[in-house]
Amino acid sequence: MMLKEQITQELEKLPEPLLQEILDFVQFLQAKYQK
Q1: CA–CA distance, 7 with 24 (Å, rounded to integer)
Q2: Cα 9 to the chain's mean position, in Å?
Q3: What is the pLDDT, as a whole number, of residue 35?
Q4: Is residue 14 a contact partner of residue 23, using CB atoms and an 8 Å limit?
Q5: 10-residue block means of pLDDT along the chain (35 residues)?
Q6: Residue 12: what pLDDT?
Q7: Contact 11, 19 (CB under 8 A)
Q8: Rounded Cα distance, 28 and 6, in Å
Q9: Which residues contact 19 (CB under 8 A, 6 or more apart)?
Q10: Helix/strand/coil (H, E, C) string of the chain?
Q11: What's the predicted TM-score (pTM) here?
């Protein structure tokens, strides 16, 4: 199983408030590594 598939499966199990935190973190990482 590919890493993206594993992440997607885990995301499906989480409640909506946690998904917002994960989105914030992903956006933080994107900004950090765009430099």
Answers
A1: 16
A2: 11
A3: 72
A4: no
A5: 95 97 97 91
A6: 97
A7: yes
A8: 21
A9: 11
A10: CCHHHHHHHHHHCCCHHHHHHHHHHHHHHHHHHCC
A11: 0.74
Reference 28, options 2, 9, 14, 20; nearest CA is 20
Q: Quick one: pLDDT at residue 1? A: 79
* The residue type at 1: M
Between CA 10 and CA 31 the distance in angstroms is 23
Position 10: which residue type? Answer: E
Question: Is there a contact between 5 and 16 (Cβ–Cβ < 8 Å)?
Answer: no
